[in-house]
Design goal:
Elements: E1 10-21, E2 26-34, E3 43-44, E4 47-49, H1 56-67, E5 77-83, E6 94-102, E7 115-127, E8 130-135, E9 138-141, H2 162-176, H3 193-202, H4 210-217, E10 221-226, E11 237-241
Parallel strand pairs: 1-6
Antiparallel strand pairs: 1-2, 1-4, 2-3, 2-7, 5-6, 7-8, 8-9, 10-11
Length: 244
Protein backbone atom coordinates (compact mmCIF):
# COMPACT_ATOMS: atom_id res chain seq x y z
CA UNK A 1 0.00 0.00 0.00
CA UNK A 2 1.29 3.46 -0.93
CA UNK A 3 1.15 5.92 1.95
CA UNK A 4 0.13 9.45 0.98
CA UNK A 5 0.58 11.81 3.93
CA UNK A 6 -2.23 14.23 4.67
CA UNK A 7 -1.22 17.85 4.08
CA UNK A 8 -1.29 20.17 7.08
CA UNK A 9 -0.52 23.44 5.32
CA UNK A 10 -0.13 26.97 6.55
CA UNK A 11 -3.08 29.09 5.48
CA UNK A 12 -2.32 32.61 4.30
CA UNK A 13 -4.66 35.39 3.25
CA UNK A 14 -3.32 37.32 0.25
CA UNK A 15 -4.74 40.74 -0.58
CA UNK A 16 -4.95 42.43 -3.97
CA UNK A 17 -5.44 46.00 -2.74
CA UNK A 18 -6.88 48.29 -5.42
CA UNK A 19 -7.07 52.10 -5.29
CA UNK A 20 -7.48 55.05 -7.65
CA UNK A 21 -5.15 58.03 -7.99
CA UNK A 22 -7.37 60.97 -8.95
CA UNK A 23 -4.33 63.08 -9.92
CA UNK A 24 -2.98 60.65 -12.51
CA UNK A 25 -6.34 58.95 -13.25
CA UNK A 26 -4.66 55.56 -12.79
CA UNK A 27 -5.77 52.38 -11.06
CA UNK A 28 -3.21 51.24 -8.50
CA UNK A 29 -2.28 47.98 -6.78
CA UNK A 30 -0.29 47.75 -3.56
CA UNK A 31 2.93 45.70 -3.59
CA UNK A 32 5.44 45.24 -0.79
CA UNK A 33 9.13 44.29 -1.01
CA UNK A 34 9.80 41.26 1.17
CA UNK A 35 12.33 41.43 3.99
CA UNK A 36 12.66 37.70 4.65
CA UNK A 37 13.05 34.37 2.90
CA UNK A 38 11.57 32.82 0.91
CA UNK A 39 11.73 35.36 -1.93
CA UNK A 40 13.75 37.88 0.05
CA UNK A 41 13.87 41.25 -1.78
CA UNK A 42 11.12 40.18 -4.20
CA UNK A 43 8.02 42.33 -4.61
CA UNK A 44 4.81 40.65 -3.52
CA UNK A 45 1.18 41.13 -2.62
CA UNK A 46 0.61 41.75 1.10
CA UNK A 47 -0.17 38.60 3.08
CA UNK A 48 -1.04 37.51 6.61
CA UNK A 49 -1.45 34.15 8.32
CA UNK A 50 -5.04 33.19 9.09
CA UNK A 51 -5.68 33.21 12.84
CA UNK A 52 -7.66 30.58 14.75
CA UNK A 53 -10.37 33.03 15.79
CA UNK A 54 -11.13 34.78 12.48
CA UNK A 55 -12.61 34.18 9.06
CA UNK A 56 -10.56 34.74 5.92
CA UNK A 57 -12.76 37.73 5.09
CA UNK A 58 -12.01 39.27 8.49
CA UNK A 59 -8.30 38.56 8.03
CA UNK A 60 -8.23 40.42 4.72
CA UNK A 61 -9.77 43.50 6.36
CA UNK A 62 -7.44 43.17 9.38
CA UNK A 63 -4.46 43.17 7.03
CA UNK A 64 -5.62 46.45 5.49
CA UNK A 65 -6.09 48.00 8.93
CA UNK A 66 -2.64 46.85 10.08
CA UNK A 67 -0.77 47.86 6.93
CA UNK A 68 -2.67 50.96 5.77
CA UNK A 69 -4.65 52.10 8.80
CA UNK A 70 -8.11 51.94 7.20
CA UNK A 71 -11.02 50.24 8.94
CA UNK A 72 -13.15 49.21 5.95
CA UNK A 73 -16.70 47.81 5.86
CA UNK A 74 -17.09 44.20 4.69
CA UNK A 75 -18.36 45.19 1.24
CA UNK A 76 -14.89 46.51 0.37
CA UNK A 77 -13.41 42.98 0.44
CA UNK A 78 -14.33 40.28 -2.06
CA UNK A 79 -13.07 36.71 -2.14
CA UNK A 80 -11.17 35.93 -5.32
CA UNK A 81 -9.94 32.31 -5.27
CA UNK A 82 -7.92 29.73 -3.37
CA UNK A 83 -4.44 28.89 -4.65
CA UNK A 84 -3.12 25.47 -3.68
CA UNK A 85 -0.27 24.48 -6.04
CA UNK A 86 2.23 22.42 -3.98
CA UNK A 87 5.18 24.33 -5.44
CA UNK A 88 3.86 27.85 -4.78
CA UNK A 89 5.99 28.12 -1.63
CA UNK A 90 9.45 26.50 -1.89
CA UNK A 91 9.91 26.23 1.90
CA UNK A 92 6.67 24.69 3.12
CA UNK A 93 3.15 23.70 2.13
CA UNK A 94 1.05 26.87 2.14
CA UNK A 95 -2.39 27.61 0.75
CA UNK A 96 -3.47 31.12 -0.18
CA UNK A 97 -7.00 32.42 0.27
CA UNK A 98 -6.96 35.53 -1.90
CA UNK A 99 -9.15 38.60 -1.51
CA UNK A 100 -9.59 41.75 -3.54
CA UNK A 101 -9.84 44.86 -1.39
CA UNK A 102 -11.15 48.14 -2.82
CA UNK A 103 -9.85 51.26 -1.08
CA UNK A 104 -12.08 54.35 -1.34
CA UNK A 105 -8.99 56.58 -1.35
CA UNK A 106 -5.34 56.47 -2.41
CA UNK A 107 -3.04 56.81 0.58
CA UNK A 108 0.70 57.19 1.19
CA UNK A 109 2.40 53.97 2.28
CA UNK A 110 4.95 52.92 4.87
CA UNK A 111 6.45 49.39 4.96
CA UNK A 112 4.99 47.18 7.68
CA UNK A 113 6.43 44.13 9.45
CA UNK A 114 8.22 41.80 7.03
CA UNK A 115 8.60 44.47 4.33
CA UNK A 116 11.46 46.80 3.43
CA UNK A 117 9.39 48.85 1.00
CA UNK A 118 5.80 49.39 -0.10
CA UNK A 119 4.56 51.12 -3.25
CA UNK A 120 1.58 51.67 -5.51
CA UNK A 121 1.92 50.12 -8.98
CA UNK A 122 -0.17 51.45 -11.90
CA UNK A 123 -2.37 49.16 -13.99
CA UNK A 124 -1.81 49.24 -17.77
CA UNK A 125 -3.50 47.08 -20.38
CA UNK A 126 -0.95 45.70 -22.87
CA UNK A 127 -3.26 43.39 -24.83
CA UNK A 128 -6.86 42.19 -24.71
CA UNK A 129 -6.10 39.65 -22.01
CA UNK A 130 -2.89 40.92 -20.44
CA UNK A 131 -1.96 43.74 -18.07
CA UNK A 132 1.10 45.02 -16.31
CA UNK A 133 1.71 46.88 -13.07
CA UNK A 134 4.39 49.56 -13.17
CA UNK A 135 6.23 51.81 -10.75
CA UNK A 136 9.15 53.65 -12.36
CA UNK A 137 11.40 51.09 -14.03
CA UNK A 138 9.76 48.18 -12.24
CA UNK A 139 7.12 46.38 -14.27
CA UNK A 140 5.33 43.11 -13.48
CA UNK A 141 2.86 41.59 -15.91
CA UNK A 142 -0.03 39.20 -15.67
CA UNK A 143 0.34 35.81 -17.30
CA UNK A 144 -1.20 33.61 -19.89
CA UNK A 145 -0.17 30.62 -17.75
CA UNK A 146 2.19 29.99 -14.82
CA UNK A 147 5.23 30.74 -17.00
CA UNK A 148 7.11 32.74 -14.37
CA UNK A 149 6.73 30.43 -11.40
CA UNK A 150 10.29 29.13 -11.85
CA UNK A 151 11.89 32.43 -12.85
CA UNK A 152 14.46 33.71 -10.34
CA UNK A 153 14.58 37.31 -11.56
CA UNK A 154 12.98 39.66 -8.98
CA UNK A 155 12.60 42.35 -11.66
CA UNK A 156 10.25 40.09 -13.63
CA UNK A 157 8.65 37.75 -11.17
CA UNK A 158 6.69 38.54 -8.04
CA UNK A 159 7.09 36.29 -5.00
CA UNK A 160 5.30 32.95 -4.82
CA UNK A 161 2.53 32.74 -7.48
CA UNK A 162 1.51 36.38 -7.15
CA UNK A 163 1.83 37.12 -10.87
CA UNK A 164 -0.81 34.47 -11.39
CA UNK A 165 -3.02 35.75 -8.57
CA UNK A 166 -2.97 39.20 -10.22
CA UNK A 167 -3.85 37.53 -13.53
CA UNK A 168 -6.93 35.90 -12.02
CA UNK A 169 -7.90 39.17 -10.31
CA UNK A 170 -7.75 41.21 -13.52
CA UNK A 171 -9.78 38.65 -15.43
CA UNK A 172 -12.38 38.49 -12.66
CA UNK A 173 -12.85 42.27 -12.65
CA UNK A 174 -13.02 42.53 -16.45
CA UNK A 175 -15.55 39.69 -16.67
CA UNK A 176 -17.84 41.20 -13.99
CA UNK A 177 -17.96 44.79 -15.20
CA UNK A 178 -21.44 44.53 -16.68
CA UNK A 179 -23.20 43.06 -13.65
CA UNK A 180 -21.05 43.48 -10.51
CA UNK A 181 -18.38 46.18 -10.99
CA UNK A 182 -17.18 46.30 -7.38
CA UNK A 183 -13.95 47.84 -8.69
CA UNK A 184 -15.91 51.14 -8.78
CA UNK A 185 -15.66 51.21 -4.98
CA UNK A 186 -12.16 52.62 -5.46
CA UNK A 187 -13.84 55.85 -6.61
CA UNK A 188 -15.36 56.40 -3.16
CA UNK A 189 -18.99 56.38 -2.03
CA UNK A 190 -20.16 58.11 -5.25
CA UNK A 191 -18.75 58.94 -8.67
CA UNK A 192 -19.56 60.47 -12.03
CA UNK A 193 -20.38 58.41 -15.10
CA UNK A 194 -17.25 59.81 -16.74
CA UNK A 195 -15.06 58.31 -14.02
CA UNK A 196 -16.93 55.00 -14.12
CA UNK A 197 -16.44 54.83 -17.89
CA UNK A 198 -12.74 55.54 -17.39
CA UNK A 199 -12.40 52.58 -15.00
CA UNK A 200 -14.21 50.32 -17.47
CA UNK A 201 -11.91 51.47 -20.26
CA UNK A 202 -8.77 50.72 -18.21
CA UNK A 203 -10.01 47.12 -18.05
CA UNK A 204 -10.64 46.99 -21.79
CA UNK A 205 -14.32 47.92 -22.06
CA UNK A 206 -14.81 51.17 -23.95
CA UNK A 207 -18.10 53.06 -23.58
CA UNK A 208 -18.57 55.97 -26.05
CA UNK A 209 -20.66 58.36 -23.93
CA UNK A 210 -22.44 58.81 -20.62
CA UNK A 211 -25.95 58.28 -22.01
CA UNK A 212 -25.22 54.87 -23.54
CA UNK A 213 -23.20 53.85 -20.51
CA UNK A 214 -26.06 54.62 -18.14
CA UNK A 215 -28.65 52.86 -20.32
CA UNK A 216 -26.45 49.77 -20.43
CA UNK A 217 -25.79 49.75 -16.68
CA UNK A 218 -28.74 51.48 -15.02
CA UNK A 219 -29.64 48.30 -13.10
CA UNK A 220 -26.44 48.59 -11.10
CA UNK A 221 -26.18 52.40 -10.83
CA UNK A 222 -28.22 54.67 -8.59
CA UNK A 223 -28.23 58.51 -8.90
CA UNK A 224 -27.43 60.21 -5.60
CA UNK A 225 -27.06 63.92 -6.41
CA UNK A 226 -24.89 66.40 -8.25
CA UNK A 227 -21.22 67.30 -8.18
CA UNK A 228 -20.64 70.68 -6.56
CA UNK A 229 -20.41 73.14 -9.44
CA UNK A 230 -17.16 75.10 -9.78
CA UNK A 231 -17.92 76.88 -13.03
CA UNK A 232 -20.50 77.51 -15.74
CA UNK A 233 -22.63 74.74 -17.16
CA UNK A 234 -24.74 72.02 -15.65
CA UNK A 235 -23.02 70.08 -12.84
CA UNK A 236 -22.46 66.38 -13.43
CA UNK A 237 -24.66 63.81 -11.71
CA UNK A 238 -23.21 61.49 -9.09
CA UNK A 239 -23.99 57.77 -8.84
CA UNK A 240 -23.28 54.83 -6.60
CA UNK A 241 -23.53 51.07 -6.97
CA UNK A 242 -26.99 49.80 -6.13
CA UNK A 243 -25.44 46.99 -4.09
CA UNK A 244 -23.52 49.49 -1.93
Amino acid sequence: MIYNPVARPYITVTNIVWSFDSNTQQIKVLLIKRENQPFQSFWALPETLLRDDESAHAASLRLVKERIGLDLPEIHAEQLATFTAPERNPDLRALSLSYMVFLPQNLPLTPGPGAVDAAWFSLNQISKHQFNFQNGNLKFKTLEDNEYLNDSNPNIRLAFDHNWILTVACHRIANKLDYQPTILLILGSSFTLKLARHIFELFGQYEPDNSNFYQNHKKILEPVGLVESQGPGRPAKKYRLTSN
